[in-house]
């Protein structure tokens, strides 16, 4: 197994404080390895974006990280806990080590500053020793890598199309050559053709620059094709984690199965699309036991009383998989 | 550039319309200014004098309305705004030339200072929501609801007096002759302190409130989160990303208030008997001094238009989205 680069351990995020608090992310343990693409999928409200914001300590109030650690392994030097960094250390860590591409490509760029200003200020903040010419050269090179011509540096965001803006954001995310890039639904606002182009480019760039990606989306079909491993989130918890191929052909959690059955396969025989009955759980009043049990077609008595623990499935004996489900052959 | 030309054409048209209205209004008001002047001299005027007054005021009964209108424009372009009744026979242009610097100095500087102070405080209050700064908001809201003539009267009652440092009225020590020397300037500053503070207190809170609210709105934009995620220094995110964008709506507000510098301070100048243009207007209204009123209105109209033009230019510079391509 490859070396880890980002280890999220027993991570908890609440919205609000005290009794009123809503637990959006509960006890998430997830490891991102060097050079891999880890997909994180789930319905709206499952806590996947909250996890991304929490890991980078960008949660807007009233979001509170109520427990857990995020251990980052730098390219050289000892690993450290991101949660324990001081403000100055955190600023230095952000973008240089872990950058983020956000969901809203349209609003991620400041409308009143030129693309160049927004790209150069991040280089200036992290590498002040670099000369202005070198900064410009670096920014132009990065834009070229994502398919934006250098003369677009002087454009304002409103002069670019949605796809171009997201390319600029990806270029900006890579400009300091971070080890980890978190992508929070980066292509959701784009049409499928543009989506495909940008993802293909991302794969190419990853091979070239060797960064790891935490890819967050609700589009499981996209992940199956594009990521190395997939983690499925439901109600703030990880319910299943496996290599993409395994998850696609042999999912163990009924929720993963439901997600997979809700989009058509491109190849192979036709099958019934079923979807998942019911709606995502209300975080203020989570069901007891497994939070998926009210919607689960295979639920039985134990599901409503005990919370299943994420672990290696007893029927598969594969250290690369884990699942949290009481069905026979799943949680040991 | 094309946008600016379009605006310029629009402003020229507006100026024409405003000046035309300015020409017609006194002529539609019942009674006429000469009659009131005759009353002032209590009938001790010959018929010839009266006739020549009519000609002098541009109210020559023999001339057609059109030729009066043409003459009026000629006068406006020559800067000849007629003679004032109150200060007869001083030309209105001369009175305005004397009073305008007072108003611009007092209200101009305080408006600018109020905008700068209010905006900066608003930025801080909006950025650190829930902090001590934010707790001051109810106080500022209270202050902004106080009309400033009342605040002025209060200030005079409490602070000004025979033994006080603050004079209660006028623009400078009565014995002094206006000139650029230390004594006169010192006296002018001393006289302007109380009205300036009054204006500042009652207007600064408006800027704080609007800026603070815009900051709160802008702070939740995605690009602010991105700026944080980029690891930029807090100060840069606050100034260059948040405040820079939050400022835009305030700029047009500022331009409007620049336009009202001349007209809007009537009350302050009355309360403090300040020798500015608002006080002139007050005297003109009291004495039915139509030429002076017309002159003051002309200045107000033009200053509002110029302020708006400045706002357009500022907007072009600050917001790239308003610049049209080509």
Automatic annotation (TrEMBL), chain A:
Q: Which residues form the ABC transporter domain?
A: 6-260
**Signal found in the keyword field:** no
Q: Name one GO molecular function term.
A: ATP binding
- Give a GO biological-process term: peptide transport
User: Could you confirm whether the keyword Transmembrane helix appears in this record?
Assistant: no
Keyword line: ATP-binding, Nucleotide-binding, Transport
InterPro entries listed in its UniProt record? AAA+_ATPase, ABC_transporter-like_ATP-bd, ABC_transporter-like_CS, Oligopep_ABC_C, P-loop_NTPase
Q: Which domain of life is it from?
A: Bacteria
Q: Which CDD domains match?
A: ABC_NikE_OppD_transporters
Q: Mind telling me which SMART domains this protein's record contains?
A: AAA
Similarity section: Belongs to the ABC transporter superfamily.
Q: What is this protein called?
A: ABC transporter ATP-binding protein
**What is the species listed in this Swiss-Prot or TrEMBL entry?**
Kribbella sindirgiensis
UniProtKB/TrEMBL annotation, chain B:
**CDD domains linked:** TM_PBP2
Q: Which UniProt keywords apply?
A: Membrane, Transmembrane, Transmembrane helix, Transport
Kindly list the GO CC terms recorded for this protein.
plasma membrane
GO biological process, any: transmembrane transport
Q: Which InterPro entries match?
A: MetI-like (IPR000515), MetI-like_sf (IPR035906)
Topology within the bilayer = Multi-pass membrane protein
Residue ranges spanning the membrane: these are 7-25, 102-124, 136-160, 188-209, 254-275, 295-318
- Residue span(s) of domain ABC transmembrane type-1: 100-311
Q: Which Gene3D superfamilies match?
A: MetI-like (1.10.3720.10)
**Keyword field contains ATP-binding:** no
Task: List where in the cell it is found.
Answer: Cell membrane; Membrane
Q: Where primarily located? A: membrane
As for family, the record states: Belongs to the binding-protein-dependent transport system permease family.
Q: Which PANTHER family match?
A: OLIGOPEPTIDE TRANSPORT SYSTEM PERMEASE PROTEIN
Could you identify this protein by its name?
A: ABC transporter permease
Q: Tell me the organism.
A: Kribbella sindirgiensis
Q: Recall the taxonomic lineage recorded for the source organism.
A: Bacteria, Bacillati, Actinomycetota, Actinomycetes, Propionibacteriales
């Amino acid at each position: 197994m490859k070396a880890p680069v980002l280890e999220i351990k027993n991570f908890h995020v609440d919205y609000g404080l005290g009794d009123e608090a809503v637990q959006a992310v509960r006890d998430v343990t997830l490891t991102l390895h060097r050079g891999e693409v880890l997909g994180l999928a789930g319905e709206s409200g499952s806590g996947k974006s909250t996890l991304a914001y929490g890991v980078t300590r960008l949660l807007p109030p009233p979001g509170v990280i109520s427990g857990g650690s995020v251990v980052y392994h730098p390219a050289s030097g000892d690993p450290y806990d991101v949660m324990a960094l001081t403000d100055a250390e955190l600023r230095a860590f952000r973008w240089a080590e872990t950058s983020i591409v956000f969901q809203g490509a349209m609003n991620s760029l400041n409308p009143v500053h030129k693309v160049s200003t927004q790209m150069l200020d991040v280089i200036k903040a992290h590498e002040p020793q670099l000369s202005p010419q070198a900064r410009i050269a670096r920014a132009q090179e990065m834009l070229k890598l994502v398919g934006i011509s250098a003369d677009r540096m002087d454009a304002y965001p409103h002069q670019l199309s949605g796809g171009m803006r997201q390319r600029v954001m990806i270029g900006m995310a890579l400009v300091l050559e971070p080890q980890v890039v978190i992508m929070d639904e980066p292509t959701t606002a784009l049409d499928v053709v543009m989506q495909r182009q940008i993802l293909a480019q991302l794969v190419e760039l990853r091979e070239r620059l060797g960064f790891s990606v935490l890819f967050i989306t609700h589009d499981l079909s996209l992940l199956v094709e594009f990521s190395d491993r997939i983690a499925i989130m439901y109600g703030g918890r990880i319910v299943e984690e496996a290599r993409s191929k395994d998850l696609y052909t042999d999912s163990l959690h009924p929720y993963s199965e439901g997600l997979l059955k809700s989009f058509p396969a491109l190849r192979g025989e036709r099958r019934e699309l079923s979807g998942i009955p019911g709606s995502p759980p209300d975080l203020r009043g989570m069901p007891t036991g497994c939070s998926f049990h009210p919607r689960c077609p295979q639920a039985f008595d134990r599901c409503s009383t005990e919370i299943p623990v994420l672990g290696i499935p007893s029927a598969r004996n594969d250290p690369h998989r884990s699942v949290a489900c009481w069905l026979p052959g799943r949680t040991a | 550039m094309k946008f600016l030309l379009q605006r310029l054409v629009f402003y020229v048209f507006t100026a024409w319309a405003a000046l035309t209205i300015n020409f017609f209004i006194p002529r539609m008001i019942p009674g006429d200014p000469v009659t009131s002047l005759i009353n002032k001299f209590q009938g001790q005027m010959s018929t010839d004098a009266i006739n020549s007054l009519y000609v002098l005021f541009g109210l020559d009964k023999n001339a057609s309305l059109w030729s009066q209108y043409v003459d009026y424009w000629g006068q406006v372009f020559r800067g000849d705004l007629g003679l004032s009744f109150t200060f007869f026979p001083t030309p209105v242009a001369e009175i305005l030339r004397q009073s305008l610097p007072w108003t611009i100095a007092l209200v101009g500087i305080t408006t600018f200072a109020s905008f700068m102070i209010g905006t900066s405080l608003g930025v801080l209050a909006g950025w650190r929501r829930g902090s001590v700064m934010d707790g001051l908001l109810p106080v500022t809201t209270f202050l902004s609801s106080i009309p400033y003539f009342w605040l002025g009267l209060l200030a005079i009652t409490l602070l000004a007096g025979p033994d006080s440092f603050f004079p209660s009225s006028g623009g400078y020590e009565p014995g002094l002759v206006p000139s650029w020397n230390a004594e006169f300037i010192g006296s002018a500053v001393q006289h302007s302190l109380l009205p300036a503070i009054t204006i500042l207190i009652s207007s600064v809170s408006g800027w704080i409130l609007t800026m603070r609210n815009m900051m709160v709105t802008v702070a939740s934009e995605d690009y602010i989160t991105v700026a944080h995620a980029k690891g930029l220094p807090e100060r840069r995110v606050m100034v260059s990303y948040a405040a820079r964008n939050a400022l835009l709506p305030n700029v047009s507000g500022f331009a409007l208030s620049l336009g009202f510098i001349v007209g809007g301070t009537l009350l302050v100048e009355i309360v403090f008997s300040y020798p500015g243009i608002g006080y002139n207007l007050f005297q003109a209204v009291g004495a039915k001094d139509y030429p002076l009123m017309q002159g003051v209105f002309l200045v107000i109209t033009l200053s509002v238009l110029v302020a708006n033009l400045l706002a357009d230019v500022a907007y072009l510079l600050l917001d790239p989205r308003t610049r049209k391509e080509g």
